Amino acid sequence: MSAVTAALLGLVAIGAMIHEPVLIPSLAASAAVLHSSPTLPMAQPRSVVVGHLLGAAVGYAVLALSHSSPWAAALAGGATLAATTLARTPHAPACATSVIVVLQTPEPVRFVPLLLGATTVLVLAGIAASRVRGGAPRYPVYWW
């Protein structure tokens, strides 16, 4: 659990340095998935990074067609599940990313690069944790 905490604290520190929120609830959920189930398909780097980016894209697409509302957020969450399934990048926390995009309407020019960087930090922390913990399963099982 210390690797998860360190990764999340790292995201907070990055956010504090650049004066932007980097830690969002869906990333904390991703950290938990990486830590507790590192061999599952949803924990693999492709699913973590691409899944969240798809979630953001779906969220912004829903916003382009509608306004920010709980109804639109629910639609975005469901559509993200469909998109990640079709792309073979299952990652449940990505559904929450699309909901966050619809409800909080962050500027894509700022949000998407931060999301990409944050998911990369989580994957790197997962790799480091699997190398440090004795007897831990090797992470990642596959990259692509």
Question: Would you give an account of this structure?
Answer:
By secondary structure, the chain is mainly alpha-helical. The protein has one domain (2-132). 73% of the residues lie in helices and 0% in strands. The protein is built from six helices and no strands. Helix 3 (45-65) crosses helix 4 and helix 4 runs antiparallel to helix 5. The chain is globular, with a radius of gyration of 15 Å. The two termini are 26 Å apart. The model has no long low-confidence stretch (mean pLDDT 93).
Main features:
144 residues, mainly alpha, 73% helix
By DSSP, the count of extended strands is 0
Radius of gyration over alpha carbons? 15 Å
Largest β sheet strand count, sense and barrel closure: none
Tell me the helix content: over 70%
| Shape, principal axes of CA atoms | globular
**Structural domain count:** 1
What is the beta-strand fraction? under 5%
Number of helices: 6
